[in-house]
Every structure is written in structure tokens, then in C-alpha cells.
Amino acid sequence: MCGIVGYIGKQKASPILINGLLRLEYRGYDSAGIATIEQNGITIMKDKGRVANLYELDGINNLTGTVGIAHTRWATHGKPSKENSHPHMDNSNSFAVVHNGIIENYHELRSFLESKGYSFYSDTDTETIPNLIHYYYEKDLEASDNKFLAAVKKACDDLKGSFAIEVLCKDDPEHMVVVRQDSPLVIGKGMGENYISSDIPAILSFTKDFYLLNDREFAYLSKDKIQFYNNDLKLIVKEVKSIEWNAASAEKDGYDDFMLKEIYEQPVAIRETIGAKLNEKKIVFDDFSLSKEYLKTIQKIYIIACGTAMHAGLGTRNTFEQLCNIPVEVEVASEFRYKNPLVSEKTLCIFISQSGETADTIAALKLAKSKGARTIAISNVIGSSITREADYCIYTHAGPEIAVASTKAYTSQLTLLNILAIYFAELLETSEENILTELKQELLNLPKKVELALKDVASIKSFADMVYKESDMFFLGRGIDYAVALEASLKLKEISYIHSDAYAAGELKHGPIALIENGVTVISIMTNPDLVEKTISNVQEVITRGAKTLIVTNQPIEDKRFDQVIHIPETSTLLSPILSIIPLQLFSYYISKEKGLDVDKPRNLAKSVTVE
Ligand code: F6R
């Protein structure tokens, strides 16, 4: 959701900025723009539509400035239009600003500025920021050593809401100021040049050394130097973090789409996530540990997340409950944060977020902490906001996930959560050792089994060909298969725009069966040998009513009544979601391709949902 790029160095900034924006396209946006500092002041080029349109703008090739900021906008205040696109300038054309987030008190700020004679040319909340900076710059900062920085800080004091902003100043053309509050922003350190971005992949080809700003920390950058300040404008020292991802991992690498590439990267992502944690000894996490004494006090575990990450919680709740004997609730973060949850110091809250920047999940984490719970963040992005808020943090090692629809992050989250549950069970001694040893062995076998599950593309494609014109589909499963049904249904909706619903198979007769008629597609997941016969009976009911059926199973089902049966390798029931989702990810992918849609950037969706 919205993307920020910045460059300050010795090269021409505009191509670097546009290239960076292209790499942030997956976050979702409706307009794009850049601002550079030229000989005669700040120049802005922007329009609604795709980033690539910037190349067509008159004069774009004449920009020579080596300092610039850039933005992809996801409309919140005001429709997508050139006027509403970022960057925005103040009335005197002295400051240019790009902004991610939402300024909640912008009406108030706008009225205040209007009363001081400022005019507004867009419907955005953002336009208040450069004008507010200008107001303070002109007003009362004569005594300040660094008027530019001091004016940005004064303006930020007035802002309520979330923001990551970059600011250029005409009078200080060799610097820029950046600051964040509840919105992502990273600074990449180069040699005689520095980069800014909303997330790491956009600038990974330039540097692997990053600084991560905390809320209300300011950076004052030149090409050779970055100075960091806290909210009182006291100089602070920040450590540079080196990121292990390589630039190639953020490229398509010969695949048609990032999503397909990421589906095929799952064996590696799972292997990397397992890392050195599993062997014949007890599980040890490198940078995280909990004591047996503490775990014994835990009466409830909450797993809290959004979308696919929440489905990873649903897919592993049983593992925690069965192995650790602790009740687990899985909750959508946007609900949790507003429900006055029953959380105390006897509750352990696990927050899952691929991006680590999801606003609802971060707010839910802050709430849980305020109520005394201990918090663990599971994220794929080193140093992301959530990892800095939580008491403990563990990483999936899926590498950058670019496609909006999450695939490898989901299976990596499932893997890591299963490992965490085994770790708890080992500490608590709540499970027999042979059960845990077997599960660990099965986890180690998973990358190979995922490779096998990725092989049967022909059957998946042929079923996708048969049903891609349909407008409704249903996913059924019992127990853990129901959790996978929910994720498979979400994946299909996201990238194919086909309406779909997931039901616990036993619920069918309590309502949804009324929707089954000739030609409706019903997809069932059956991996639990104890429940297979029951789910088959449910599927029989829909076949009788004319449904087309696809079965995903690890059981020896060969039944002519079903239109297609996809066999996946056998594994422990608790781990089966990691395999059963694979053909269903491919199914959604091929449906989307058949329909000629943009798989990686589905309409209305953003990769990082950084606002509410
Ligand atoms: C679906 C999808 C979303 C995300 C959700 C949470 O494919 O990607 O449902 O899972 O927006 O995002 P993170 O994990 O970044 O918090």
C-alpha cells in the first residue's frame, strides 16, 4: 500500500527512483510520481496510472538532479488523479513531500493553514505536510542550527496518524529528511550514495546494508553521511543491519510471474526456515528462548494475524493444543484489537506477519502487551515494525515475497509454527518423545515432499481449464483440512476474482448445500484418514446435485465419481496443510492465467496493508 523510494548520491536520481517504484509495484497503487532537486529548484513529475507512464512524461529525460524522492499512491483521501498524486509541494515550492499512511487530523491542520493564508490544490491529507513544514520554517526557527530538520520535526509534532515521509528542501539541496510513525521505511547505505524505500526488495540491488528507523526517529541524509535523531532532535547512533537476501531473489528468474516462482521456491523456503533448528537433539532457536517455568504459567495461547497469516495460525492450532496441552485461540487482528480481549500475563500471544508491517496486527500486538501478555512476532522481514514491538521475534526464511498472493510465506509460517509447538512441548514435557521425534523427522522430509507435490501440474491445469469460467466455487474440509480450505478459497478469490467460500464439510447440510446445483465446482481436501469417509459422504451429496468435484488427498482414493483426484505425499496429519495447499495454490494460479488476469498484482489488493 503506497510505496516510497528516495535517492541521494552522485548519479542521476530519476532512473533510480523510477526503477525503485517499479520494484514496489506489487504493494498496490493507482498513481506515481517523483521529485528531484534541479538547478532551478524542485521539479515534480507525476500522474495517475502505472509507474511506466512516468517515462512518457514531457521533460522526464531532462532531469539531472542527484537528489530525489518518489512515490506510488494508493488513494485514501481523494480519487486517483494527477493533482492527488505525490509528491506534494508547499505553496512557495520550497518543500516537496511524499507520504505513506494517513494523517487523521488533516481537516484541522488544513483549516489552520488556510487561516494563515495557505491554499490547497489537492484533496489529500498529505498536502498539509509540506505547508506545515513551510509554516514552521518561516515562523520561529531562526535560532535553530538545522532549520530544515527542525521544521520537519515541528510539523511532525502536529501530525496525528501514521506516516512515513521523505522531504526535500529547495534551500538545502544536498540533504533530505525522512521520518516514520507506524509506517514502514528503510534506509539503504551505499558508498557515496544512500537509498530510501518502503521495503527492502526495491533497493536490494544497490545495497545489503540497511538502517531501520523506529517511530519518530529522524534521518538527515546527504550522499556521504546519515545523521539520526530522536524525537527531541538529539543525535543517536543506529546500527547498520546486513540483509542476507540477494537481489536475484527479488527477480522473476525466468518465470512468467512472481507467484509461480514463489510457489516453486517453497521447498527451499521451508528448508531455510527449518535451518539448523531440527536434529536429534532438542530444538534451540538462535535468538530466542523461553523458560519451562514461564511456559508452565501459560493458560492460553492466542495466535493473531490477518488473511493468509491468520490461516497459518488456524493450520497449526491443533499442533499447539495436542502437543502442549494449552488451549489456543486464533483471532483476526482487526477483531482482536477492538474487542477488549481476555488477555493477561498468563496469556502468550503469537503474532504472524509476513511483511511485519500490517497495521491491524501491530495494533493488536500493542494491545496484548499493554494487558501484560508476552508477545512473539513471526515475520519474514528482518527488522520490520512488528519484530521491534514484540518481546521475542522469530523469522521465517522465505526470502522476499513479491506476489501479492502469499504462498511461500504461508508454508514457511506453518513450518515455523509447528517447530515452535514442538519446542514448547519439549520444554513442557507434555508429549511423548517418540511423537516429537517422528514429527521432527517428518518436518525434515517436507521439502522433498513439497517438491513431489509440485510435480502433478497437468491434472491441476486440466481441472482449472474445465472450470475457469465459473463464477462460484466451494472448498470443503474437516479439521485441519478446513483450515486449508479457507486458505485455498482466499487464494482463488484474490487472483481469479471468482467468488468462493470455504466450509467445514459437516456444515454443508446446515445451509450451504442450498447453493449446490448443476455445474457448481466443489473442491475437497481429505488428509485425515479418520475423517476421509465422512468427507467423501459430503462430496457424494454435492455430486448428486450436479457439482463438479476436485479432491486433494494423501489417501488411496481412486473414485470415478470425482472429476479429478490430486494425490499428494503422505505426512503427519498435523503437517498436512504444508502439502495440501500446494496443488490449490497452483489451481488458483492457472485459473487466473486462463482468465488473462494480472496474477502478481490483483485488483484492489496491496501486499503490505499498512493502514487500517
Ligand atoms: C493473502 C495475503 C494477505 C496477507 C495479509 C497479512 O494472499 O497475502 O491476506 O496474508 O494481508 O499480511 P502480513 O502477513 O504481511 O501481515
Which key phrases capture this entry?
binds fructose -6-phosphate, 8-stranded antiparallel sheet, 22% strand, 25 strands, 612 residues, 7-stranded antiparallel sheet, alpha/beta
In brief:
The chain contains 18 helices and 25 strands. The strands form four sheets. An eight-stranded antiparallel sheet has the order 3-2-4-1-10-9-11-15, with helices on one face. A seven-stranded antiparallel sheet has the order 5-6-7-8-12-13-14. The protein is globular, with a radius of gyration of 26 Å.
Structure description:
The protein has 612 residues and is an alpha/beta fold. It has 18 helices and 25 strands. An eight-stranded antiparallel sheet has the order 3-2-4-1-10-9-11-15, covered by helices on one side. It has a seven-stranded antiparallel sheet with strand order 5-6-7-8-12-13-14. The longest helix is centred in the last third of the chain and has 21 residues, at 408-428. It starts with a strand and ends in an 18-residue tail after the last helix. The site of fructose -6-phosphate has 14 residues, from helix 8 and helix 16. It is found in: Cytoplasm. Pfam families: GATase_6, SIS. Residues 290-430, 463-602 form the SIS domain.
Largest sheet: 8 strands, antiparallel
Q: What share of the residues lie within helices?
A: 25-40%
Shape: globular
Which ligands occur here? Answer: fructose -6-phosphate
Number of DSSP strand runs = 25
The DSSP helix count reads 18
What portion of the residues fall into strands of 2 or more residues? 15-25%
Mean pLDDT: 93
Q: Give the CA-CA distance, first to last residue.
A: 11 Å
Measured on Cα atoms, how large is the radius of gyration? Answer: 26 Å
Coarse structural class: alpha/beta
Q: Residue ranges: pLDDT <50 for 5 or more in a row?
A: none
